[in-house]
Amino acid sequence: MNRPQAERRQRLLAELPASSVAVIAAGHEQTRSRDTEYPFRPNSDFWYLTAFPEPDALLILTKDAAGQSAELLLCRDKDVEKEVWQGRRFGPEQAEQQFGIAAASISEQQAQLVAAMKGKQQLWFCFGDDEALLSQLNACQQQIRTTPRQSELAPQQQCNLRPLLSELRLLKDAHEISLMQQAATISADAHKAAMQLCQPGMQEYQLEACILHHSAMQGARYPAYNAIVGGGENACILHYTENNAELCDGDLVLIDAGCEWQGYAADITRTFPVNGRFSTEQAALYQLVLDAQLAALAEIKPGSSFALATQACYRVLTEGLHRLGILQGELDALIEAEAAKPWMIHSLGHWLGLDVHDVGSYQPKGAVPEPGAKNRVFEPGMVLTVEPGLYIPKGCDTDPKWWGIGIRIEDDVLVTAEGHRNLTAAVPKTIAEIEALMAQDASDPGQGHGQFD
Amino acid sequence: MNRPQAERRQRLLAELPASSVAVIAAGHEQTRSRDTEYPFRPNSDFWYLTAFPEPDALLILTKDAAGQSAELLLCRDKDVEKEVWQGRRFGPEQAEQQFGIAAASISEQQAQLVAAMKGKQQLWFCFGDDEALLSQLNACQQQIRTTPRQSELAPQQQCNLRPLLSELRLLKDAHEISLMQQAATISADAHKAAMQLCQPGMQEYQLEACILHHSAMQGARYPAYNAIVGGGENACILHYTENNAELCDGDLVLIDAGCEWQGYAADITRTFPVNGRFSTEQAALYQLVLDAQLAALAEIKPGSSFALATQACYRVLTEGLHRLGILQGELDALIEAEAAKPWMIHSLGHWLGLDVHDVGSYQPKGAVPEPGAKNRVFEPGMVLTVEPGLYIPKGCDTDPKWWGIGIRIEDDVLVTAEGHRNLTAAVPKTIAEIEALMAQDASDPGQGHGQFD
Amino acid sequence: MNRPQAERRQRLLAELPASSVAVIAAGHEQTRSRDTEYPFRPNSDFWYLTAFPEPDALLILTKDAAGQSAELLLCRDKDVEKEVWQGRRFGPEQAEQQFGIAAASISEQQAQLVAAMKGKQQLWFCFGDDEALLSQLNACQQQIRTTPRQSELAPQQQCNLRPLLSELRLLKDAHEISLMQQAATISADAHKAAMQLCQPGMQEYQLEACILHHSAMQGARYPAYNAIVGGGENACILHYTENNAELCDGDLVLIDAGCEWQGYAADITRTFPVNGRFSTEQAALYQLVLDAQLAALAEIKPGSSFALATQACYRVLTEGLHRLGILQGELDALIEAEAAKPWMIHSLGHWLGLDVHDVGSYQPKGAVPEPGAKNRVFEPGMVLTVEPGLYIPKGCDTDPKWWGIGIRIEDDVLVTAEGHRNLTAAVPKTIAEIEALMAQDASDPGQGHGQFD
Amino acid sequence: MNRPQAERRQRLLAELPASSVAVIAAGHEQTRSRDTEYPFRPNSDFWYLTAFPEPDALLILTKDAAGQSAELLLCRDKDVEKEVWQGRRFGPEQAEQQFGIAAASISEQQAQLVAAMKGKQQLWFCFGDDEALLSQLNACQQQIRTTPRQSELAPQQQCNLRPLLSELRLLKDAHEISLMQQAATISADAHKAAMQLCQPGMQEYQLEACILHHSAMQGARYPAYNAIVGGGENACILHYTENNAELCDGDLVLIDAGCEWQGYAADITRTFPVNGRFSTEQAALYQLVLDAQLAALAEIKPGSSFALATQACYRVLTEGLHRLGILQGELDALIEAEAAKPWMIHSLGHWLGLDVHDVGSYQPKGAVPEPGAKNRVFEPGMVLTVEPGLYIPKGCDTDPKWWGIGIRIEDDVLVTAEGHRNLTAAVPKTIAEIEALMAQDASDPGQGHGQFD
Ligand SMILES: [Mn+2]
Ligand SMILES: [Mn+2]
Ligand SMILES: [Mn+2]
Ligand SMILES: [Mn+2]
């Protein structure tokens, strides 16, 4: 079997000690209002291990005392009448064929879980993720414990599957990398379309609509996260998602948006002038952020770390802010005192994968946890964002000419043996490139919706 | 104060008996994956009564033993640091000014709820809606009951607020009708754009993308429900939302989609030929559904009911199916035996409002509930859908020439003193109109994205 | 049918409005440690209405829209194997015969509750009593609400059964009065035996053992509450139940103990000298408490109230404390200022019945609750305790000669048409009677365990 | 520090791996009815490790990454006003002095638990014991996981403390053995008193009362389990606790009762003739059970096991039943087929200690669990019961002369280096001894309540 999901399950099973059972849940549909639901999005771990798209499913992986492993997918039964109303279901038989995992009906979940747990030493699941699953696992264990003479067959340990799964997911396999490149490519196209569409007088949500539309037309029906489109000072609110203000001539606009492709996230931020031309101050700060990003990107390679890349970024930022007079004093002392931090309060980047803020420890594997440390050494196969920014809200302690400027430049980067590959390099980010693209006629062939003509 | 929400709160308070407290919750953000959330959508009742858009808020309405009423909105506090990260918040003070309701901090919710309940005879909330709210209300009541000497101050009755609120929401006020017309208009435009865009070889999700985009460009950022775009036989699955098949030459495609505008839903279905031309069989069945819809629409007027409109619809459908040879036997006997029902298994329509399947009893106010009955007499101000259909899946017991055809035609209708107003009349539904629109060039001025040029 | 429980159910059903369902649970066995349980004690309301002694049972009373009522007892099934291990069970069939209530298996509880609730307007249960029952009732209602087309058949109101049941239980019927007299008689005998047994050097728990033994030998196997046996200063701790100190020559000992007979409580307190002779100070204070009790008892009659009896009691106490020099100042001012209250911080008495602190409002039926008020007018059939006390711990602000004295005298009193009947008059309470009884030889015939010789 | 509880905590801490936290809860008072509680009985594990007698307390044991251990007792604060009403409390300060454990207020439990857990690899508690504790521990872990940057400080494993504690409790230390001997001695005296008291016409509950009384007079206020007093056929119901039948001339009566002394259980069963004289059939069966018990007792020694003792017991029983004609066929085949099992369906005995069915595996330490196996090798310091029985209910397939006879003889036995010590040998069990004791005059000096004269 050469399905990537099957290989991932094998890798996970290889990590589990003998006499273990691991349970991963797909999750359930969530109500949006009354009898309507949000579009279902499977739990990332479940999706990673199965690619099975339906809600209400469970994956049970077991390894017995002799080290023999088994897999079981529990899913909804076929039900002709319900399917006419609610949509098609695979059912266990078809699921087994199509997804290559032994399958049974979710209606037997209590019995199947009890059978899988009985006599196993360790029960593995992701701690803290899913209260309903926890209740269910507790009920199953309690059933064993209260069955006469079987009490001692209940698992004696519960272990957090999170670190194991996070470690696996941290290093992307070839299949994942190709999907992530696709997510990045679609999102990059969408960002370019939004840049071209932008004009003073438009609404922030219209740029969001443009981005969503370009992605959806390619089959990326949902965003990886709620898009941020912030004109002017709105860019200084890091997770601004109202997107309901008018875009004004003379302001910058910051777009932080990425689509989800087959469950994988892209996460791109670009900042550009609403009217297509950077002002002097905008250009000065923008160039500074770009320089900082380039300095950080230079540090994305095997053996480096977020800590080192962050250092490089802050060095450039501090120098620039000092040069521009926003920071005053002795440069080395400013660097030492982390004086640039109030102007970029967020971190340089994060792991990227099935989740936009993807799982994976920021610290060395097996190290004693150290709150806040990001000294994990980069290895080929890791994917991360590099996203320095500068935010100067109105009223802050600078020359007012800088006020109301918020800038962030974010790319998605794969660590490779040679260094890194920028998955989102297709979106312009130099001042010249941006101004050139925005000067083009949006109805120009090859732009807009053209990709599906 | 002439805000419509204030008037609605007054109408609700007028319905509550003396010595009552009513609690309505806004709901909470829901996790989509890991640390990302679905876009927050306030609880419909809460939104109806407040127009306050933030999560984690509560509305408390009280009427004391003397009949004196009071209102209190509990909401999140201002928090400069959190707002930089998570977005702006009103805070109680600003909420009070802007929304015209006395407000306090949600951090005091336990104390405020206890204070509001103490000494009240009846506690009103929507039964079965919100488990977290129920727990909280129970905890508050238990706090009163276990306070020495105060036990008897806990409410002695819990009453379902649902019927009262449903009755209010069933009759739309002028403000609501204008919003619903806007939702309908935006959605109608979007349907027309999708019709024009459609071509064999496109994907179902691309028509969905088109619809969502047209709505979002007008500011309707979210659909009222997950769009159904079903080509060919997919149309026979009532809530088909995968939308991931190719649209084939010779097939029909059914689109059931509507946007949400200021919380209000539109709900439009149109069915049209992928290639722009109905085949003979498609045309025969389509005309039949359209005739049935027109017959039903003729019954939408004060004094009529869903029951009567459904009768009219089924009469036309049965006659037509009999005429086409799909139903065989004596016509009157077929009507009597409800022989058309297997071909249209869903009901004729539903209330429409803040929810796509809106609240409101389908039976006379105050009547003993009668499962399935829909004999509520129409009154001006009610809004409803009229959506007959015919579904002939492959393999069913008819001439194979009919197989794989699923048709539904749905409009949104306001009952008026004179009869009704069709809010979604702008989308073509005759065969001639549809074929004409689809023959137009999609790049024709005034179409496509032109509305924001 | 002339069973008293049947009559009580009828009285309760008569109080319920049409279209109601009431649910009363027996409760469950509670674990004492590991796999041992405390002796099961049925919920008082359930016992009052059924006299059915097993755990895990439910009583469902319904009144339909036409006012027709029905009763259903759900109980454990017969199970030969389990009964060999765990004890005999009635099973529904035998329960029906023996207890005169239609019965079915508790294994059908979800279905039976749903059936009973469906279409009823009001669901009645005791609010705040039983979290497990509440969950179950919520699940049943939710099942109805989420059954297609049945949503409106779920009850629209939940009403507190507590006030209705409390009102019924407040007025004891003839069967109850005879059982309460029996509880009082057994407990009175036990108190006399303890008085006779008492000697310096004994342990407090030995007097408790004596009381429990005398009751148990009469078939009253369990106390109505945990006995208080407090020598010397221990009497000043109101619910002292350690009972593990030595009884010292020269001290008083306070015994507050009563048995449970067929579910009904006795509640008697006597205070007497460990060595059989009151000291001067003990006698002075004892006589004062006794006078206060007699004054209060004189107020126990139809038309009076706890408020009036308390007034009489405090008047005597204040006069006495003033006379003894413990309270100083002007008598009327002391009374006005409730100056005696710090010396008797508890209230004069409480309702008595199936619970030692029995249910029943202390305020007029139907009045707006007034925290702390005890102005319910006495009626024939009410049973209550009258239990003034005085407590002078060491170190308090009095002449040290009074220190370490705690006294309470408590009788159980039935309000009759003529005034009252003291159910516990058989236990001596004058100084002379007590000293005489304690001077008798405990091995005297007719005492000790003689009752079963 | 030479307190036994301190040594036990040290032994437990020695078993815990580095970077562990263990939590043990005292439990809470449980409601008997309305506002009365059952007498509080601390959780056995908590009592074993602390001897702290109050409810609502927690013990937290930690071992950090360096192997440094710490102890913390959380208990109720002093509260003068509450203590007057509800009884005295130690409060942290006094608890620390008196019980020799660092103590703090239970009001800080969330913070103290979080602090103790943070950064620990493993969280240990007894799985399945205490749902409220589980919720609390989950809440604490979730608090850590959702604190920014601290997520990884939450324990990654939850481990069952039960096996560790059970193993410790299985081997009684000297302090425990002395307490268990005291429990056994008190209970033995009580059984003798009941034998002497017994006469035809008495009620079963009166023998129970006698047993409870004799124990309580010695300070053993509570039974270790609900006493079984079964006359005649009632003896065939293993956990018959109604105890409400008359004791009839000619019947046997079975008493299974034992007191609790300082938390430790005795568990004695004796069976004797109500009228003081065994009939021929009663004597034949009684002698058989006694012989079986003696055969089993001979196997209670280091190196043996329940399995071996059970074999010896069943061999004697089978031979005897064969001899008496109750079992027919070839003796060896009967033994092979376990033909005696239907006449003694329960097992031969169980561990005894703080719980009557005490904790401790019945299988070798560290072995893979094998349901039902009892092959744990006896070691000095183990305490167990040996309790063969024979039960011949009416209507079963034997000569009717045997009907209605139920017999069990149970002693409590300490395994010693030399073999065993019978802690309950003081209660007569030969036919001759029993008949002699029952022939004595119960008012004979030295009997009855004499022990406290
Ligand atoms: Mn990012
Ligand atoms: Mn519809
Ligand atoms: Mn009392
Ligand atoms: Mn035993």
Automatic annotation (TrEMBL), chains A, B, C, D:
Keywords associated with the record: Aminopeptidase, Hydrolase, Manganese, Metal-binding, Metalloprotease, Protease
A GO molecular-function descriptor: aminopeptidase activity
Domain spans labelled Aminopeptidase P N-terminal: 1-134
Class of this enzyme: hydrolase
Domain of life: Bacteria
E.C. designation(s): 3.4.11.9
One Pfam assignment: AMP_N
Cofactor(s) required, per the database record: Mn(2+)
Coiled coil regions, renumbered to chain: none
UniProt cross-references to PROSITE patterns, sorted A to Z: PROLINE_PEPTIDASE
Entry annotated with the keyword Ligase: no
NCBIfam families: PRK10879.1
Protein family according to the UniProt entry: Belongs to the peptidase M24B family.
Protein name: Xaa-Pro aminopeptidase
